[in-house]
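Chain A, query sequence.
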Amino acid sequence: MRAWQVERLGEPIEVMSLREVEVPSIGPDEVLVKARAIAINFPDVLLARGEYQVKPDLPFTPGLELCGEIVEVGANVSHLTVGQRVIASRIGLLAEFSVLDARLVFPAPAALTDEEASALFIGHQTGYFGLHRRARLQAGETLLVHAAAGGVGTAAVQLGKAAGARVIGVVGSAAKIEVAKRAGADHVIDRSADDFVAVVNDLTAGGGADVVYDPVGGEVFERSTKCIAFEGRIIVVGFASGAIGVARANHALVKNYGILGLHWGLYATKAPQFVVEAHSELTRMADAGTVKPIIGEVLPFEQAPTAIQRLSEGSTIGRLVVTI
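Chain A, predicted structure.
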């Protein structure tokens, strides 16, 4: 089979090679899945650079989520069947075939295409855990979503609206405004033209945002503390800016807000039952049309390094997906 491999650390376009490797064999608790569509995620960029929190030995295959078809099941697997369309997430999926732990493989929502289903798992699960499990977002609260035109951001916007929140999205350019609106944002701020702190405080009559969803980090995190509400919650999702924001404990104390870290990947090992519950709820929402990953562009499998490199540049809108 063909698989993309990172052979040395650096920029994805420079360090990835398409190789012929053996189709892996499965164990009794595993399934073999033939990929149909593979969504690209920002951690793919960090993996190639050696900057992700998990550092696989070289060479390794990137790719973190897919939609595919089961072609073989292990002897102990009874809840999945050959031919079933499924989604899953782990490092190493940018290949034609993947072996997966059957406990973390889920039926793909019938309402979604292969491309949409491939992009549901990480972005929407992260949003679901961040908004509901960590921040306990309530109907009527104001949610501020940074990078609201990206894959993680559009998922958070959709989930915030589904929860009954007033959603303010922040995007990096005027070209991205319509995507955030399409996701459901009530207000969209172009931070290249306006100061999001001033606009949020104006929209909330000085009260600030009850919940801030931040996959950007750096200055965005630090400035978000200037428009956070009393008893507000800032969810730290990632650092797409390349910089880690500095949390000031005295400021959090004086303004009475909380800073919540979210490493969604830990739930698969620490509390996998919550991942199962979230998938059931997201499937219900997808079938009802409440959530749907916004696919910005679909590229062929052979252009995977290009897709990952473009994501690193911050110019993409919605989700990038490669298909086989």
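The mean pLDDT is 95. The longest strand covers residues 30-39.
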